[in-house]
Amino acid sequence: xxxxxxxxxxxxxxxxxxxxxxxxxxxxxxxxxxxxxxxxxxxxxxxxxxxxxxxxxxxxxxxxxxxxxxxxxxxxxxxxxxxxxxxxxxxxxxxxxxxxxxxxxxxxxxxxxxxxxxxxxxxxxxxxxxxxxxxxxxxxxxxxxxxxxxxxxxxxxxxxxxxxxxxxxxxxxxxxxxx
Length: 179
Fold this sequence. Notes:
Number of helices: 0
Low-confidence stretches: none
CATH topology of the largest domain: Neuraminidase
Shape: elongated
Number of strands: 13
Radius of gyration: 19 Å
Structural class: mainly beta
Mean pLDDT: 89
Strand content: 35-45%
Largest sheet: 4 strands, antiparallel
Number of domains: 2
Helix content: under 10%
Distance between the termini: 28 Å
Strand order of the largest sheet: 4-5-6-7
CATH superfamily of the largest domain: TolB, C-terminal domain
CATH class of the largest domain: Mainly Beta
């Protein structure tokens, strides 16, 4: 799945398949300006910052079990969001510091370090997702990803895929080749 925020005409947090299909709103109320999003891949939670409502909130992948992690004026200066173990990590663009927020006790906020002009934060770990033995976009014997001549996108599961073409090409009637 692909998760993303939108604060255009109607602010929301959404998810869709990697090919863009099955687009679903998972948060569409009491949300104004969601600017950063992070996933807990193990427990299947979506965290986001709302700088207008000055809050950090969480829901499960279906948009249920919504909770506010922390709220207050300090949120309006936050950008970027990452999850690792029991903490959320973010950047305070006002104080130029990396913050660690306990995601179970949002009042426990610690400044870890100062950085010049940081706007985003990522946590890299050796194994963020469970491995899949095989998937629909693996290279076929000729080296084409999922049998697609240009681009292979996973669809509703790791066993399904959608082929797409690079700009200037159209997908052939076989659903795999680009012309």
